[in-house]
Amino acid sequence: MNEKIELVSDLKADDSINRQFDKNNRGKLIDARSKFAEKRRINKFETTWLETSKNKIIQSLDSDLDNTDQLQIIINSFPQEQIAEAFALSAKSFGCSDGRTSYEGEDNLVKLGMAGGGIMLFAREVKADGRLETNVEWLSRLHESTKFKNFLKTLIDLNVKEIYGHDECGAAEKVNGKEMGKTDPLIFSEYMVLSLEEMGYYITAKHLNLEGENQMRNDIHDERMLVLDGTGRFNPEKLGFPSHFMVNSPSFNAFAGENEPIVSDKDLLNELETLCGVAKGHGFGAKFSEKEPFYIAITAKNQNQLDHLLKLAEDVKKRIPDMNIKINGYIYNN
To answer: DSSP secondary structure string, 11-62?
Structure first.
């Protein structure tokens, strides 16, 4: 009898030791996997940087850094038919500026972008008791907002046929907090679709993911530039631009009254600073140098608009003095 008790006791002791051994090794395995994933991520950044450095647009801009008209020269070097195609009046897909969301949809829709898919303009408000608005409070307020209605009218005017959202959006996290930032872009994009349906305009909604169906183009931020488009028409893909943040916010004041523009200069500055911050903190960051900077490429419909957007871009550059940024502009007035 005593031998059985001792045997059971020994087995329990062995089991306890085995569990502890498994726990320790599991921790080591998780740590090893984490280190391997980080090494793989760094290697991918290195490889992608080298690949994007071979892009002809980047090489041409890098070849004459002091010429602020270099973008005008580059685009004008393309055949006129190709330039016209890049600025054609096409059906659009609207969503986040994030360069990883660039994709060719089934209908070859041209991407129209804003940081967070416009959510930075319509963030949740903080209530008097210090809490963020609930979904019902937030969406009910948007339903009554003239600015939101004008925003939707502009989507129609710009021929948007699809609205997409994606998980883990940095712009949404900035204005609505980390937890809300995970889901709010999807709630917001779906609410836009429903609101447009109320206006008799039927479009599709798409949810982009880092994995699986409707997969995003990349799992790392590999943007080499920010394209700031004031024409509402530019498709950089047609001219072979590298991975980029797409910002069409200057095109969204078509229905605005004089006292309430949809996108104010303050809004645009905040948006541009946020996206440059993503490139700096989550993208290539320190790799941007005086000889290989991060570019803000502006496309405008006239000289006045270009001058205005150049000034705003310069203001953003001053806000991030430790990031190497170069600014170039192009006028498309056909």
So the answer is: HHHHHHHHHHHHHHHHHHHHHHHHHHHHHHHHHHHHHHHHHHTT-HHHHHHH
